[in-house]
Each structure stands twice: as C-alpha cells, then as structure tokens.
Design brief:
The structure is a homotetramer.
Chain A lengths: L5 H4 L2 E6 L15 H15 L5 H8 L1 E12 L8 E11 L3 E10 L2 E14 L10 H11 L7
C-alpha cells in the first residue's frame, strides 16, 4: 500500500496578513481584494504539486483562467488581521476543475468561494484538456483517502 | 399619468477603458479587476438617483456592502478595449437588494454578475433597513414600465 | 503660419472619480492608487496624439516603461471626489521622455509627480529610440507656442 | 555593554512572491504594484518593533502617511519570482522619517525607493510628533552599531 503525500489529501492553506492596501474607506478589506487572496492561495496550492505557473505557460503552452465564481461574504476582515486562505479540490473535469476556497480568521469563516477554472491555450484562450502532468496529480487528490491497514 | 424619469426605468451603463493597470501577464484583464469595474458602475448608478456614497455614510450612517456575488466570465477584455459596464436592479428586499451587472464590448457579453448588497450600519456593520430616501427611488425602478396612452 | 492643434500645446487633463476601490482604511485614497490615476491620464494623453498602446506594441514592437518617478503628496483625496489628473511633457530625449503630472481637486493641488518613461523593445525590454511616429508628435508639443500675428 | 536586538540594527527584509495579480500585459510586474510590496515590508518592519498599525491608530490616534517618494526602476520582476523587499531607516525627524527600500531578486537590485513618511493625527491628518513609544525604538535603530568587545 503506497501512502500518499500528506499535502495531496489535506486542505491547502496560506497565511495572509491584511495591509492598508487591502482595505477601503469602510474600514475593512475591499470585497474585490479577496479575489487576490484566493489567487495567491490557489497558486501556492498548485505549486505544492510542483506546478509553477510561469514555466507551465512556457513549457505546456496552457493557462488556467477563471470561468465562474460564487462568493459569499460573511464577516469582514480588518487591518492587521492574520488570515488563513484555503484551497481544496471540489470537482474535476477533462478541461476544467473547481476549487472550494475559504478565508478564515482563527475559527471564524469570513468569506467562502467556489471557483471554476478552465484550462486554455495561452494566446488563443481556447479550452484544452488538462495536461497529463497536472491531471495525474489532481487525480490523486480526488481519490478517497486510503486507510492504513 | 405621471411619466417616470428615463434613467430610473432603463439600464444604467458606464463606459470604462482598459489600461495596463487592469491587465495581467496573461495579456487580458485580471479576473479580479472586473469587481472594480462593477463597483464603479454601481456607484454611478446610485449617483444617478442622487445617492452620493460619501455623504450617504455621513448623513444616514449606513453603508452598502457586498454579501454575495456570482460571476460568469465568457470572454476576456484586452488592453485599450472600450467597455460598457451596466447595472440593473434585479431584486429588492427590506435590507438588501440585488443587481444584475454586465461587461459589454460592443455587442459581445464578456462578464456577467449578480451582486447582492446589504444595507448596514457603518461601524457595527449590522444589517439595517434601506433608508426611505433610497427605497422610494428603488421602488420606482422596480415598477413595471408604464405605457404611454 | 500653421496653427498647431490645441491639444498638442496645452496641458492634457483627465477627470477621475474616487471610488471605494481607490481608498484605504485611513479614509483617504491609498498612496499607491495615484500611480494608477497617473497611468490612465498618460495613456489618454498619448491617445490624444493617436498613439493607442495596444496597437503600438503590435505594430512597432515597442513599449513605454516607467524608469524613475518622484512623487510629492500634499493633500489626500477622498471618497466621491472628482479629480482632474494632468499630463504635460517636461523633457524629451532620444529613447526616453519625462512627464509632469498632477492630481487636482478644483484649485487644490493634491499630488504631483515627475515620471520618466523609457522606450523599450517588447520582449527583451531593451531601450530603443522613440519611433519616428511618436517623436514627430512630441516634437510639436515641445515647440514654443506660436503667437498669432 | 548592552547588546541591541539584532533586528533593530540590521536591515529588515520580507520575502514576497509574484502572482498574476501583480503583473500587467507587458508580462512583468506593474510599476504601481511595487508600492504595495514596499508597504507590506514597511508594515512588517514596524511590527518587528512591536508597532501594530491598527492598534496604533486606536491607542495613539496617529497614522503614518507617505509624503514623498522617489523610485528608480532598474529591472522588471516577473511572474513566480521570489523577491526580497527591504526597509532600512535612512533619516529621522521630529514628525517624519525616511526609509530606503529595495526590491531584490537574489543579488539583483530591481527597484529602489526612498520613502518619506509623516506622522499625522488620524481624522484631521495634521502633522504631530512621533509618539515616544515609536521614537525610542527608531532612536535605537539609528544609533551606530556597537562593536562587541
């Protein structure tokens, strides 16, 4: 029985600090800023599989673009807050996949998002199947956790 | 028969030009930038009713915050594109309302969003009913168009 | 005596409205946001000469990049402010030029910047001389205003 | 001979990764984005002295705002780059101080900035002397390094 690397089966999480640049005159984080927080966490989640986006574009000629997004804002984050922003695979197709992402402050859920990403050719932006190098890793993530025996 | 001001019953639209600041290394507008485009159009839509957000906070002590958002990205906008970003009332409750917003490039729909906004007290951010001054104007918008006789 | 087009000899100015997205928790415009305001005004100033940045990259294969910038922040802009952001040619070399830019609120000077831009090859980002199509127009701007006789 | 805490006398540096959100269609980091990178590094530099900006505003009623900035852009940062952004005290007055900040990629200097910050009352934004709690720490930083004997 081959054990899977822990970071493939568990939820990925990135610590993010809130700065003035992230806030607005309402005294809280601007609602659009969370999309930047989510992008940082998704990118690091991919990097944890060995997918570096820049070399990925150059070597595979493909790009991931956001196709749909659903956001629920529960509570606002504030200046100096230390957040945890997560990414977890929630769906996997031939040419697209879906992530569930959350912004947490300690135990409090602040913002939740479902993000659907398509794999496209850089340049034409036409949909293409996920490269095998990525698929094989995402397949591992979606497999049910294997119990130790 | 009282005729309604045209800008209450028709869709509001704001022209927005795409600059380098709005794009990313994928060569197209960054997906998070559209939330800024939508905010600009919503704010001008409110201003067309006489609601200036800054004085609104100071006089009424209330703020509109985004509570939920659903986004569908159809086609990317590019550098130098001249877009039209719209706002149209799609739902109206006691303490919240929903806008349908679209990014158009000529006849092409690029991005579509449903944006649910809550009315909250500035400071506490607790939900409060929409001020009567705003409600009375939004009620007009949601009325069925009156045919001229 | 040939008269010059008015927009070549006079200062260019772009109206810009302040939205929540431009502000921070200090209640005023975030200091980095002014660089976006300046970029919008510079781009429209270039467009007033017939230089569209996107087609410029594609046709001439060159790009303008910021090389140096000096900023003086005098007074803060606030939510809902209606600003005028200017661009005026202050220096012209073989492969670079300098703009004086200002953010005004009515008669008040809020922020002032000297922005030095270099002309570079897209891709390599190596300095190249300004294309003749741009130089001929900037030469007109730097000529002393001709008095009517 | 009292030895000083190492982080007071040495240069402060924050690792920052480049994401799509930081880049523009030129394929490199947008020139305005570096101001956000610098703000993050300055904030963490202050935090290393025990100054948390949010509680600082609430307890002392004062705010640091950027008054002047000089930027030199040497080389562009790119997607996925891992940068080090530094902050070092370069000048200290009664109500203002100046930082030298740099963006490094390995041994390469990419961007350099001198940032002058003023201490102001939150609300009125009038200049006020630096609070004693901050001054006493900045005084330590500006002291000549003490040699071990």
């Amino acid at each position: 029985l081959t054990s899977l690397p822990a970071h493939y089966v568990s939820r990925f999480s990135l610590p993010i600090r809130v700065y003035f640049q992230d806030t607005d005159a309402g005294g809280v984080v601007f609602h659009g800023t969370y999309l930047s927080f989510f992008e940082r966490a998704r990118t690091e989640w991919l990097r944890s599989f060995g997918v570096e986006l820049n070399s990925f574009v150059e070597e595979e000629g493909v790009l991931f673009i956001v196709r749909r997004m659903e956001l629920a804002y529960r509570k606002p984050a504030k200046l100096d807050d230390r957040l945890e922003v997560s990414a977890e695979l929630a769906g996997l197709g031939r040419a697209q996949f879906t992530l569930r992402q959350e912004v947490m402050r300690g135990d409090e859920l602040l913002v939740k998002a479902d993000v659907n990403l398509a794999c496209v050719q850089s340049g034409s932006l036409r949909p293409v199947p996920l490269p095998e190098s990525v698929r094989s890793k995402l397949d591992l993530v979606t497999s049910p956790k294997q119990e130790s025996m």
